[in-house]
Amino acid sequence: MSSMMAPPSRVPFYLALLVAFHIAIVIASNYLVQLPIDLFGFHSTWGAFSFPFIFLATDLTVRLIGKSPARQVIARAMVPALLASYVVGVLFHEGRFNGWGSLGELNTFVFRIAFASFSAYVLGQLLDIQVFDRIRQQGRAWWLAPAAASVFGQALDTAAFFSIAFWRSTDAFMAANWVEIAVVDYVIKLTVSLLLFVPAYGVALAAIVRAMRRPGEPAAALC
Q: Structural domain tally of the chain?
């Protein structure tokens, strides 16, 4: 197992960058989840294609900075992400700009989505961190930790989000189809993660480790 970690002096910069990235992906996903699509005859949303980016970033954070700083990212990102998601969701509800005046009254439908995203984000990311760190410390193959973390973390994230956001929702379509959409959404996110983001994790980690390695230092294993 490699001991290659980010220099302590660079940790605050990395944390700030990761917090901003997490907030941006949560905001984008909360907007995209309002836009349904039909995929091979099944109902899903565009949000299924954006959210796996967070799991990639989280796994790299745990690997390069550690479990505790990764939790700090979640703690710092969750409230701003909740507020920003609500504002963006209200302004662009149903895929169109509704004007600044729409912020003048509480949109309970959008707030419920934002709160569901807040809850799912915290639960899914904490489980992802725990699973990833536990497997990584066992010295298994480099791909096993991000793959297992995605399987469990995204399952909890998806179940929490769709049940909180759309069970008995005022949106008749989502209320009637949220279970199907949640299952398809999870399959899509997991497929994207395992086929694209786990390999991307390996490529990104290898590039970062090479950049951090001092001249003359032997190459570090990816685990």
A: 1
Looking at the domain assignment, is residue 23 inside a domain? yes
Report residue 3's pLDDT band, with 50, 70 and 90 as the boundaries.
very low
Q: How far apart are CA 150 and CA 58, in angstroms?
A: 10
For residue 163, the enclosing domain spans 8-212
pLDDT tens-place string over residues 181-221 = 899 889 988 988 899 888 988 888 888 777 766 555 555 55
- Quickly list DSSP for the chain: -------GGGHHHHHHHHHHHHHHHHHHHHHHTTSEEEETTEEEEGGGGTTHHHHHHHHHHHHHT-HHHHHHHHHHHHHHHHHHHHHHHHHTGGGS---GGGGGS--HHHHHHHHHHHHHHHHHHHHHHHHHHHHHHTT--TTHHHHHHHHHHHHHHHHHHHHHHHTT-SSHHHHHHHHHHHHHHHHHHHHHIIIIIHHHHHHHHHHHHHHHSPTTPPPPP--
**Where does the pLDDT of residue 133 fall: very low under 50, low under 70, confident under 90, or very high at 90 and above?**
very high
**What pLDDT does 82 receive?**
85
CATH classification of the domain holding 176: 1.10.1760
